[in-house]
Amino acid sequence: MIITITGKPGSGKSTIAKMLAKHYGLKHYSGGGIQREIAKKKGLSLLELALIEEKDSSLDAWVDKRVEELGKKEDDFAIDSRLAFHFIPNSIKIFLDVSLDESARRIFGSYRPDERENATLAKTKENIKRRMRSEEMRFRKYYGLDVMDRENYDVVVNTTKLGIREVFDAVRKEIDKKLGRE
């Protein structure tokens, strides 16, 4: 079983992917982790990296090729990645939604050295909007994709008013339905 998880920043993608991997006995991979590694090696924040990627598609292409190859080589894993649903079409595709205010609150409340521009809650909110615009523009330009189109996914959960355990339970129940394990 392959589970791909995408969604808005601060929606709980990485946490839920790790929880699902543990629950189903799968490996866990993170597209965001790959992006963070690249940003760290270049001494950039994620937002700075995204702005560079708007002009240079080579980094996106490199990450996307790694994700696509993973989907062809392995059968049992969960991955949180913006575009994994597209590059691994045989996966169970999950989208986690969250309001902008809650996204900013979560991200601001968790220290992330690669998001150093987030000095205040208001600045965090603005940076999330900039990052999402950048990603949406790149993904449309490079792949003709709208990652926010809920029709791309098998399961959609709004995490705004849910605790992490409630999100996990909602996603797990939907996966179990898809697998006929109700």
Give an account of the 3D structure.
Helices cover 56% and strands 13% of the residues. It has 8 helices and 5 strands, in the order βαβαααβαβααβα. Strands 2-3-1-4-5 form a 5-stranded parallel beta sheet.
| CATH-defined topology | Rossmann fold
Helix percentage? 55-70%
Question: How many E-type strands?
Answer: 5
Shape: globular
Contiguous uncertain segments of 5+ residues: none
How are the SSEs ordered, and which strands pair?
Elements: E1 2-7, H1 13-24, E2 27-30, H2 31-42, H3 46-55, H4 58-73, E3 77-80, H5 84-87, E4 92-97, H6 100-109, H7 121-143, E5 155-158, H8 164-178
Parallel strand pairs: 1-3, 1-4, 2-3, 4-5
Helix pairs in contact: 1-8, 3-7, 6-7
Please sum up the structure shown:
The chain is α/β, with parallel strands linked by helices and 182 residues long. It has helices at residues 13-24, 31-42, 46-55, 58-73, 84-87, 100-109, 121-143, 164-178, and strands at residues 2-7, 27-30, 77-80, 92-97, 155-158.
Keyphrases for this structure?
single chain; 182 residues; Rossmann fold; five-stranded parallel β-sheet; 8 helices; 5 strands
